[in-house]
Amino acid sequence: MTYRHTRQRSLHLTRPPLSIRMRPQTAWRSIGLLKRHATAQHSFLGHRAIQTASSRPVPNFAFAFDIDGVLLRSSKPIPGAADSLALLKEQGIPFILLTNGGGKHETDRVAEISEKLQVPLDASDIVQSHSPFAELVKGPDEASALEHKCVLVAGGDGDNCRRVAEQYGFKNVVTPGDILMANPAIWPFSKNFSDYYKTFARPLPSPIDPNNPAKSLKIDAVFVFNDPRDWALDTQVIMDLLLSSQGRMGTLSEKNGRTDLPNHGYQQDGQPHLYFSNPDLWWAAAYPLPRLGQGGFREALEGVWAATTGGPSKGIELKKTVIGKPYQPTYEFAEHQLLRNRLKTFGNSTDLPPLERVYMVGDNPESDIRGANSYRSGFGSSWQSILVRTGVYSGGDPAYTPHTIADNVHKGVQWALKSSKWPAA
Ligand SMILES: [Mg+2]
C-alpha cells in the first residue's frame, strides 16, 4: 500500500507555523521578521561560529533530537544522553526535542525528561507529534477555526489527550469513550472495558439520535492524537463518522458509493476531516523487538476503509492529513521553534549569525532520517541526519541513508561538533 504517497490535505502549514503559545497575529509577524533577519545576515556573515558583542560564541548550528531510542529507551536514559545534552547546554548550543511521541502536554513531557536526564528544559524545547494541531484552534482564518467546533480526540491513556487538546485551546472535545458510555450499543465488545471508560467519560454535548439527524451529535474534525488503546472502538467510531452525513453520528451518507461523484461519493458529504499524528509504524520499547506504533493503527483503519469502500483498487482514497516526522510541516514547526528559542537565548542583535545547519539525531530511518533528508527549510538552513544504533535501527543498510551512523547519541553529537568545527569537539 502506498499510503505515504497519497495526496494529503495541508494542515494550513503551507504558511509558516505558529508557536503553540503565541497569539496568531504575533506569530505571523515574528515569522516574517525571522525570515528577513536570516536573509539579511546571510549576505555578510561567514560560516563558522561568530563572536557576538557579549563575546560569547554563537553557534551557527543546532540540534534536533528524537527521544525514544535516542535519549530514552522505555523511559530509561540511554548512556551518554544526559551528558550530551548537558554539554550542549553548557556550550550554549541550541537544541530541540523532536518526537513522534505524545499523549501528554508539552509541559508535562519535558518535566519528565528533564528529571530523567537532569537537564533543565521547558515546553518550548520540545515538539511532539501532535504539537502542530494547536495551529488548528484558530486556523488560518475564522471560518476554519476549530476552537468552538466539536472535535473527536482519540488515543492516549484515559482522556489525557482530551486535556492536552483543551490546553491547546479546543473548547469542545469528545472522546470515543464518551460516545461508548452514552451509547454502549455502538460497540458492544468494549463493555468489558467500561470500568476504564467510566473513570473519565463525560456527557456528550448532544445525544446521538438517528431519528432526529439534524439534532444528533455532530463532529467537525477527528484527531488521532496518540496510539489508540482500544483500536476496535476507535476504528468503529471513526468509520461511523467517515461514512456519516455531515459528521452526524447515527447517520449514513446517501452519497457513499455513488460512482458519478469524486472518490465514489466517499467523504463528499461534509464528513469531519481526519487528522493523524505520528506516522511511525514501529517504535522501540522495552520488548527486544520493535512494537507497532500509531502508524499501525492507521494502516489497520486504512485496511478497514479499503475493505468497506473498495479502496485504492477502485480509485477510492481515505482523505486525511498526517503530521509528525517525516513530514515537512513538522520539521518546519520545529525549526521555527528553534529559531525563536535562539532569539530568546542570544537576543535579536544584528550580529547574530543565521542558523545554517541543524543536526537531526534519530534512531528511525523511516521517520527521523527520511524527514531530515527530505526537509527543505524556508529559513535558509540545511539539515544533516545522524542515525544512532540505540533504538529501532539495528544495523545493515538503512532504508534512508543518513549523513553518518553513530553508535549512540554521544558519538553522534561529537561527530556533529567536529563537523561544525566547534572548539569543544
Ligand atoms: Mg525514536
UniProtKB/TrEMBL annotation:
InterPro entries: CDP-alcohol_PTase-I (IPR050324), HAD-like_sf (IPR036412), HAD-SF_hydro_IIA (IPR006357), HAD-SF_hydro_IIA_CECR5 (IPR006353), HAD_sf (IPR023214)
SUPFAM superfamilies: HAD-like
Pfam family, one: Hydrolase_like
GO BP term, example: glycerophospholipid biosynthetic process
Species this chain originates from: Penicillium olsonii
Name of this protein: HAD superfamily hydrolase
Top-rank taxon, per record: Eukaryota
Any one annotated GO CC term: mitochondrion
